[in-house]
Design a protein that fits this description.
The complex is a heterodimer of chains A (about 90) and B (about 500). Chain A is built from 4 helices and no strands. Chain A starts with a helix and ends in a 13-residue tail after the last helix. The longest helix of chain A has 15 residues, at about 5-15. Chain A has helices at about 5-15, 30-35, 40-55, 70-75. Helix content of chain A is about 45%, strand content about 0%. Chain A has one domain (about 5-20, about 30-80): Orthogonal Bundle (Non-ribosomal Peptide Synthetase Peptidyl Carrier Protein, Chain A), CATH 1.10.1200. Chain B is of the alpha/beta class and about 500 residues long. Chain B folds into 3 domains: about 30-70 and about 220-300 and about 435-490, FAD/NAD(P)-binding domain (3-Layer(bba) Sandwich); about 70-110 and about 215-220 and about 300-425, Polyamine Oxidase, Chain A, domain 2 (Alpha-Beta Complex), CATH 3.90.660; about 125-210, no CATH class. In chain B, about 40% of the residues lie in helices and about 20% in strands. Chain B is built from 18 helices and 18 strands. Chain B has helices at about 40-50, 90-95, 100-105, 125-135, 140-155, 165-170, 175-190, 200-210, 220-235, 275-285, 290-300, 335-340, 375, 380-400, 420-425, 440-445, 445-450, 465-490, and strands at about 30-35, 55-60, 70-75, 75-80, 105-110, 110-115, 120-125, 215, 240, 245-250, 255-260, 265-270, 305-315, 325-330, 345-350, 365-370, 410-415, 455. In chain B, helix 1 (about 40-50) packs parallel to helix 9 (about 220-235), helix 1 packs parallel to helix 18 (about 465-490) and helix 2 packs parallel to helix 18 (about 465-490). The longest helix of chain B has 27 residues, at about 465-490. Chain B is globular and about 65 Å long. The N and C termini of chain B lie far apart (about 70 Å). The model of chain B is unreliable at about 1-15 (pLDDT under 50). The chains are: A mainly alpha (about 90), B alpha/beta (about 500). The structure holds flavin-adenine dinucleotide. Flavin-adenine dinucleotide binds next to helix 1, strand 13, helix 15 and helix 18 of chain B. Flavin-adenine dinucleotide binds near residues 41, 59, 425 and 464 of chain B.
């Protein structure tokens, strides 16, 4: 998966968790928490969706790597290799 | 009081006997067996089902919901047991993990009132209103109030100083028992917190709870639990009531099966929603845990239990709107021990108007107090009946002060005690709110002891109440799912 696709994948997951948020203006280098309302339960949901959709298991000690979209790309790129983007599921 | 009014025995009136085999037709093996259908068990089950896991949910009672329950009595009375109020966050939790319909039925309470010898007012139950009251009613300075809130906000789960709630209050508001009462009394009713509990547990709960109002479920607990059941069925969860799980079988440090009704049902994971201590000591057996862990669990203190008095108004009778939730006490000073006393003068009233169950023109009132198991358990049958009757009388006298003449409108009244709660959900000592703070760690690390064994349910004060239990179900289900995922990877 490319960096753009990973961002799309994450945004699509966030959209299912926070259906009322507008994600079009999200900056990739600013903490997600500081741009939209995401609490620790929401981060857990992102982790669960990654496992469900892409079979990617993020261990608890790595949750902090997902704080920004850039962080997501950096952390997930090796894990998402060869996986196909699933949006709107 | 009329002679026709009926007192139910409470701790002995029947769970209905079952007919036939409640496990008929189940499969030989599941990915995960969820033991218990409290809000943590139900919510854990829904997450695992959505993750595509094969789930069996076993509940010993004939209803689902655990303490989130209701019961009916002749005369068209429906009583809710734990629908007094929950924090705003429940709406988001239901929206994300349950259904839009469930979330949309969550409505804010219109009225919350305190009435005790130290203060008396209505409150919005929001952060702003508490600040306002602390200034105008209690005469505190803005700096003192902000200092307190600032400290709560930066309290961190991992930096537990060992300070108690009482010490925290005394540091910020020395000698102000009235302020301590305002800050703790509602939370004591919501999760059994005492002045002697760790300040950290209080800090975490306060921010969620006394911040943006109190909410309820429109349609009543029965409607909520039925909607949850329907969603679980839609997702293919196999649900069986009246099934007591007797054992969780562990071999070589790993969960293999549960035993219920003489059957062994294979599974790769168990999510236990039974009480923490019951899970370790009764269902699994201490021998399957390290001695240190088993010892730490046996030392976990249970939280207190409750008493309730349920009052149903005769069909056609009504009362004017007073408030929804009333924290009342005639005790001169606030004291955590007084709150749990056998003859406590402190109780909450929940008033249920037709808006609770739209379409039904009915009124009910439920009084709740905190209570100790030991006070009620040691009574002889005669003493027990006498104490229950006295509790009912005290409650009726109290409610008359707020709703003059209501006694004559009440058609059905009955009381529940710690023994009633123990009987219905099998929580040791009838605990209403799980365990004290120290229960959190063994609950969260159970799977490190026995692979495939997870716990979710009221523990540690912070994971208690409807919202805490539901969210904990999600947290635990995430771990269960990760474990099942890791098994697939190994096999592949
Ligand atoms: C009187 C009272 C009033 C309350 N009021 C409120 C309130 O207004 N707001 C609020 O948020 N919270 C309230 N609470 C607290 C709240 O109800 C509980 O914290 C929450 O419902 C607990 O959920 P749980 O998942 O931990 O487990 P529980 O509700 O305890 O459920 C555990 C389930 O497991 C089942 N079980 C146990 N062992 C077995 C076994 N071996 N086999 C099969 N099944 C088993 C039990 O039958 C039960 O159904 C109140 C509690 C009480 C007692």
């Amino acid at each position: 998966m490319t960096s753009e696709e990973i961002i799309l994948a994450i945004k699509d997951i966030i959209q299912t968790i926070a259906p009322d948020e507008d994600l079009s203006e999200l900056k990739t280098d600013v903490r997600l928490r500081d741009q939209i309302e995401l609490d620790s339960m929401d981060f857990l949901d992102i982790v669960m969706e990654l496992r469900k959709r892409y079979g990617v298991q993020v261990p608890e000690e790595d949750y902090k790597e997902l704080a920004t979209l850039d962080g997501c790309v950096a952390y997930l790129t090796p894990h998402m290799q060869g996986k196909t983007l699933k949006v709107g599921v | 009081m009329s002679d026709t009014r009926k007192y139910y025995k409470g701790s002995t009136d029947g769970k209905a006997p079952f007919h036939g085999d409640p496990l008929e037709g189940i499969e030989a093996a599941y990915d995960v067996v969820v033991v218990g259908s409290g809000l943590a068990g139900l919510t854990g089950a829904v997450i695992l089902a959505r993750a595509g896991r094969k789930v069996l949910l076993l509940e010993q009672h004939y209803n689902l919901g655990g303490l989130a329950t209701w019961f009916k009595r002749r005369g068209g009375h429906i009583f809710d047991v734990s629908l007094h109020g929950f924090p705003a966050g429940m709406k988001k939790t239901c929206r994300k993990y349950w259904t839009k319909d469930i979330a949309d039925s969550i409505a804010r309470l219109d009225g919350i009132r305190f009435d005790n010898p130290q203060f008396r007012f209505d409150t919005e139950f929001t952060r702003e209103d508490f600040v306002h009251k602390l200034q105008t009613v209690f005469g505190l300075s803005q700096t003192a109030i902000e200092g307190f809130f600032a400290e709560l906000a930066q309290m961190d789960f991992y930096s537990n100083s060992g300070e108690t709630v009482g010490e925290l209050f005394e540091r910020h508001f020395p000698g102000r028992n009235d302020v301590h009462r305002l800050l703790l009394e509602p939370i004591s009713y919501a999760n059994g917190s005492h002045l002697s509990d760790p300040a950290i547990a209080y800090g975490i709960v306060f921010g969620n709870f006394m911040a943006s109002g109190v909410y309820t479920f429109s349609g009543g607990t029965d409607r909520l639990v039925k909607a949850m059941k329907a969603e679980l069925e839609r997702l293919g969860v196999e649900i069986r009531n009246r099934v007591q799980v007797d054992r969780i079988l562990v071999e070589q440090g790993r969960v293999r099966a549960v035993v219920a009704h003489g059957r062994t049902i294979a599974c790769r994971a168990v999510l236990s929603n039974a009480n923490l201590r019951a899970t370790v000591e009764r269902l699994v057996g201490q021998e399957h845990f390290t001695p240190e862990y088993a010892a730490s669990v046996s030392q976990v203190r249970l939280n207190n239990s409750s008493c309730q008095v349920y009052m149903g108004l005769k069909e056609g009778e009504s009362i004017p709107f007073i408030t929804d939730l009333l924290f009342t006490s005639s005790a001169a000073r606030f004291d955590s021990m007084e709150l749990c006393d056998l003859h406590t003068q402190s109780r909450t009233f929940s008033f249920y108007y037709p808006k609770t169950r739209p379409g039904l023109e009915r009124y009910t009132i439920v009084a709740s107090t905190n209570a100790h198991w030991s006070d009620w358990n040691k009574l002889t049958p005669e003493q027990y009946e006498a104490e229950k009757a006295a509790l009912i009388q005290r409650t009726l006298t109290s409610v008359e002060q707020y709703v003059p003449g209501v006694r004559t409108k009440i058609e059905h009244v009955e009381a529940a005690t710690p023994r009633t709660f123990e009987f219905y959900v099998q929580s040791p000592e009838g605990t209403s709110f799980g365990t004290k703070f120290e229960g959190l760690k063994p609950s969260m690390t159970m799977h490190e002891q026995v692979r495939g064994l997870f716990h979710a349910g009221s523990v540690g004060i912070i994971m208690s109440g409807w919202l805490g239990a539901a969210n904990y179900g999600v947290i635990a289900a995430n771990k269960v799912d990760a474990w099942l995922h890791s098994l697939v990877e190994v096999n592949a």
